[in-house]
Write a structure and sequence with these properties.
By secondary structure, this protein is α/β, with parallel strands linked by helices. The chain folds into 2 domains: about 60 residues, DNA polymerase, domain 1 (Orthogonal Bundle); about 290 residues, Aldolase class I (TIM Barrel, Alpha-Beta Barrel). It has an 11-stranded mixed beta sheet with strand order 12-11-10-9-8-7-4-3-2-1-13, covered by helices on one side. A two-stranded antiparallel sheet has the order 5-6. Bound molecules: iron/sulfur cluster. The site of iron/sulfur cluster has 11 residues, from loops.
Length: about 350
């Protein structure tokens, strides 16, 4: 799991096997979404046994699955060396979304996020990133089953994707292959807390996914407090990178600023104006703002904004010509919502199939 075409070709050459075996296994892994060699019955039995002895197909084990009253599913998986990995399936009438993790835990210390409490456990491999998607697709649509209207992927689970850049890009390239999972970059969004040099690098990629930048404050003193990564790359540096990224967008494409609304902290009328000023000052036009109501948790000292204030915040941005959307929280009851992933295993959660 996690090997691309070239690496599989090399592997089979090393085993003294013909080249087409690499294609068969590529399809077995990523098109048929099989997680064991036993199921790849188009391979000779002796080869299957040899592969099972010498290599590894599945690199994750599903520990638990939690299902929300709104249909959202949270999967708590483990790497072979025991680290937690969480993935969320969010059903939607028009298109389903899978929110996956790029790291186990997260080294950034965003003050409103439960994942921050885990710290960084380790980067996930390309195989561990891909297998999350395979596990979810198989669970929802059956092993190798067709997705009814395609699936969007968002790298917004545990971790900062740009701190695991190479593995993330490798995984996305493998997943884009039309003879595999065939999830094209246009259906993928990578969300960063603001690792500025990597935004420039990302902008240069030929076939790159969509970008979301988590902003959550329009002034340095507040952003320093909410998202300490801002002390390293303050707002002006982040905006300069956003401007560069914007230049690479094609007609009709946009990127996103995410803004977690915290009651009484960053949600005032003045702060909405400040955000609009910032966007205007930097001449950003191909941008939309996703307003994310804070998802409360016991260990976090914040409360969600008043719904009336959320509406006002949105209206102020729109009155300044900026597109703004309020994201509906999903899966709060099972700790699956934004900022809630912390490998929770509460006994009061409905757990299906350990
Ligand atoms: S919001 Fe994202 S980047 Fe920040 S601590 Fe949480 S997982 Fe890490």
């Amino acid at each position: 799991m996690g090997l691309g075409r070239d690496e599989l070709t090399e592997l089979f050459a090393g085993l003294g096997e013909p080249r087409y075996r690499a294609d068969q296994v590529f399809r077995g892994l990523y098109e048929r979404r099989l997680r064991s060699f036993d199921e790849m019955t188009d391979l000779p039995k002796a080869l299957r046994e040899r592969l099972a002895a010498e290599t590894e197909v599945s690199v994750l084990e599903v520990e638990s699955k939690f299902v929300s009253i709104d249909g959202t599913r949270r999967y708590l998986m483990r790497t072979r060396d025991g680290y937690p990995v969480e993935t969320v399936f969010i059903p939607n009438e028009s298109r389903d979304t899978i929110c996956f993790s790029s790291q186990s835990g997260c080294p950034l210390k965003c003050d409103f996020c439960l994942t921050a409490k885990l710290g960084l456990l380790r980067n996930l491999t390309a195989g561990e990133i891909i297998e999350q998607i395979i596990v979810v697709l198989n669970d929802v649509y059956g092993i190798g089953g067709e997705t009814p209207h395609g699936t969007n992927l968002v790298a917004m689970g545990e971790g900062e994707p740009f701190l695991n850049f190479e593995n993330l890009i490798k995984a996305l390239e493998i997943m884009a292959d039309e003879k595999g999972l065939h999830i094209v970059p246009g259906r993928v969004t990578v969300s960063t807390a603001g690792i500025v040099p990597k935004i420039y690098e990302f902008a240069k990629l030929e076939r790159r996914p969509n970008l979301a930048i988590s902003l959550s404050a329009a002034s340095d003193p507040l952003r320093d407090r909410l998202m300490p990564i801002n002390r390293k790359w303050p707002i002006e540096d982040l905006m300069a990178a956003a401007r560069e990224f914007e230049k690479t967008l094609k007609r009709g494409e946009r990127f996103t600023f995410e803004y977690v609304l915290l009651g009484g902290v960053n949600d005032s009328d003045r702060q909405a104006e400040e955000l609009a000023d910032l966007i205007e000052r930097h001449g950003l036009r191909k941008v939309k703002i996703n307003l994310i109501p804070h998802n409360p948790a016991e260990q976090l000292d914040y409360r969600p904004s008043d719904p009336e204030q959320v509406r006002r915040f949105k209206e102020i941005l729109e009155s300044r010509g900026i597109s703004a959307y309020v994201r509906t929280p999903r899966g709060r009851d099972i700790y699956a919502a934004c900022g809630q992933l912390a490998a929770k295993h509460e006994p009061n959660l409905v757990q299906i199939g350990a």
